[in-house]
Specification:
The structure holds two protein chains of two kinds. Chain A contains nine helices and ten strands. Chain A is α+β, with helices and mostly antiparallel strands. The chains are: A alpha+beta, B mainly alpha. Chains A and B meet through helix 1 of A and helix 3 and strand 1 of B.
Chain lengths: ~280, ~140
C-alpha cells in the first residue's frame, strides 16, 4: 500500500477507533447477572397477544375515541387527508376493510359501517422478513411485531410488504404536526416508518393498549392472550363468528373481527333446490 | 547532499509552525478552555452518583446508552441495577434527564465542545425544551 495522505488518515483513524473501542468492550462484557426488576407496576405478559374488535359496537364515537387515544399518546402527527398521513389505527368502511369477502347481499348499512384497522401483528409477518436492518422484528415471546425506530433507515420495503396498509412513512418532520407532544413517548423523525406496537410500552407497565382502555365502557375492543383458553379474547373468538383480514395470504393476522349476524330475511331468496 | 542543512532547517521550521497550537498552550500555561458542566442535582439524597462512577460515565455513557437502547427495545429488559444496588429504568428521558434536566448546560456543552451531534433528540423529547421552545431542537 502506498502511504499517501489518504491512507495515513485511514490507518490513523482505525487506530484511534480501536483505542476508543477498548473501554467500550469492557463495559459490554459486564455480567448481566446484576439486572433486577423494579417493583413498579407488574407488566402484562402473554404467549400470544391478540385483539378482538366487535364491529357491532363500532359507533362513530367509539371509533373516534380509540383513534384519538392512540394517536395522542404516541405523538402521531395529524396529517389526516394528506398523502403524508400517518396512522397507527384508523377507520375504514366494512366493505373496503373486507373487500375480498363476498359482500353483495349484506345490508348496505353494514357495508358502510366503520371498521377499526390496525397492525395485525401477524404470526407470519411479511414486513419483518423484508426489513434489511432488523428494525422491525417479531417478538417471539409474545407475538408483537415490534418497531425499533433507532434502526429504521426508511427504505420502506415493509410498507410494500404489508398487505394491510398498517405502516406509514414520515415524509416530513412529524413534530411540526403534533398538536401537543407527550414527553412520555418519543416522536419519530423524518425518514422513519411507524406503526401500531400493541402498546408494548403500556403492557410493560401493566396497562392495556390505549385504544382498548379508551373504549372499555362499550366493550368494542378486547385484548388478551390467545394461548390462554380462559382469556377474554379466547372466549370471544370461540363464542362469536369472527373474520380476519385477507386470511388467504397466510399471514395469520391476530386481530379478529366479530361480525353481526345477517338475518335470513336480508338474504336473497332462492327457489328450493331439487336435484 | 549540499542542501542537507537547508532541508533540515526547513523541516524544523515546518514542524514548529505546524505544532504552534501545542507550543502556544505550553507557553500560555495550563489547558485551553474546557466546557463547564453543571450538575444540578448533586445534593439530592441517594442521587449523589450516576448509574456508573463519573470516571466511567464520561468515556462510556454513549456505549451504556446504546446498550440500554437495545436491551429495552429489543429484549424488553427495562431495569438497570447499578454497582450500588440501586435500580433504574433504562430511559434517557426519564432516568438521565431526571437528574440532568439541564440538558443545555450538561449534555450540550460537552457535545458542542467535542463537535459531536448525537441524534437522540430528533425523537426523544426534552420536557424543558417542550415548555420553552415548542419542543424543537
Amino acid at each position: 500500500m502506498i502511504i499517501d495522505r489518504r491512507n495515513f488518515v485511514r490507518v490513523a483513524g482505525l487506530g484511534a477507533l480501536g483505542a476508543a473501542a477498548a473501554p467500550a468492550s469492557t463495559l459490554l462484557a459486564e455480567p448481566a447477572a446484576s439486572r433486577a426488576k423494579t417493583a413498579s407496576a407488574k407488566p402484562l405478559t402473554a404467549k400470544r397477544w391478540a385483539m378482538v374488535v366487535d364491529t357491532r359496537k363500532a359507533t362513530e364515537e367509539n371509533v373516534r375515541a380509540a383513534i384519538d387515544a392512540c394517536h395522542r399518546e404516541h405523538n402521531v402527527p395529524d396529517l389526516h387527508g394528506t398523502k403524508d398521513e400517518i396512522k397507527w389505527i384508523w377507520a375504514e368502511s366494512f366493505e373496503h376493510a373486507f373487500h375480498e369477502q363476498d359482500l353483495h347481499y349484506i345490508p348496505s348499512a353494514m357495508k358502510q359501517a366503520p371498521t377499526l384497522l390496525l397492525c395485525n401483528h401477524c404470526d407470519d409477518p411479511p414486513c419483518t422478513q423484508v426489513c434489511p436492518t432488523g428494525a422491525t422484528f417479531k417478538r417471539e415471546r409474545d407475538g408483537i411485531v415490534m418497531m425499533d425506530w433507532h434502526r429504521c433507515i426508511g427504505c420502506r420495503y415493509c410498507i410494500v410488504a404489508c398487505p394491510y396498509g398498517s405502516r406509514s412513512f414520515n415524509f416530513r418532520d412529524p413534530r411540526a404536526h403534533i398538536a401537543e407532544i407527550d414527553p412520555e413517548y418519543p416522536t419519530r423523525m423524518r425518514g422513519v416508518v411507524e406503526k401500531c406496537t400493541f402498546c408494548e410500552e403500556r403492557l410493560a407497565r401493566g396497562r392495556e393498549p390505549a385504544c382498548v382502555e379508551a373504549t372499555k365502557a362499550s366493550g368494542m375492543m378486547v385484548f388478551g392472550d390467545l394461548e390462554d383458553p380462559d382469556s377474554e379474547v379466547s372466549r370471544a373468538v370461540r363464542a362469536h363468528f369472527c373474520i380476519r383480514r385477507k386470511p388467504g395470504l397466510g399471514t395469520q393476522p391476530e386481530v379478529y373481527y366479530i361480525v353481526p349476524e345477517v338475518k335470513t330475511r336480508d338474504r336473497p331468496q332462492f327457489p328450493p333446490f331439487e336435484p | 547532499m549540499r542542501d542537507l542543512p537547508k532541508i533540515i532547517i526547513g523541516l524544523a521550521i515546518f514542524v514548529i509552525i505546524v505544532a504552534i497550537p501545542l507550543w502556544y498552550n505550553l507557553a500560555g500555561g495550563g489547558a485551553g478552555a474546557m466546557p463547564e458542566l453543571v450538575v444540578e442535582t448533586e445534593d439530592v439524597p441517594g442521587r449523589d452518583e450516576c448509574v456508573l462512577p463519573a470516571g466511567r460515565m464520561r468515556p462510556e455513557h454513549m456505549d451504556l446508552l446504546n446498550r440500554w437502547r437495545d436491551e429495552y427495545v429489543r429484549y424488553g429488559d427495562r431495569d438497570f441495577t447499578d454497582h450500588r444496588g440501586r435500580t433504574f429504568e433504562k430511559s434517557l428521558t426519564k432516568t438521565c434527564l431526571d437528574c440532568h434536566a439541564n440538558k443545555d448546560t450538561f449534555c450540550d456543552r460537552c457535545h458542542n465542545y467535542m463537535a459531536v451531534d448525537p441524534y437522540c433528540w430528533d425523537c426523544h423529547v426534552v420536557p424543558e425544551e417542550l415548555a420553552g421552545r415548542g419542543g424543537r431542537r
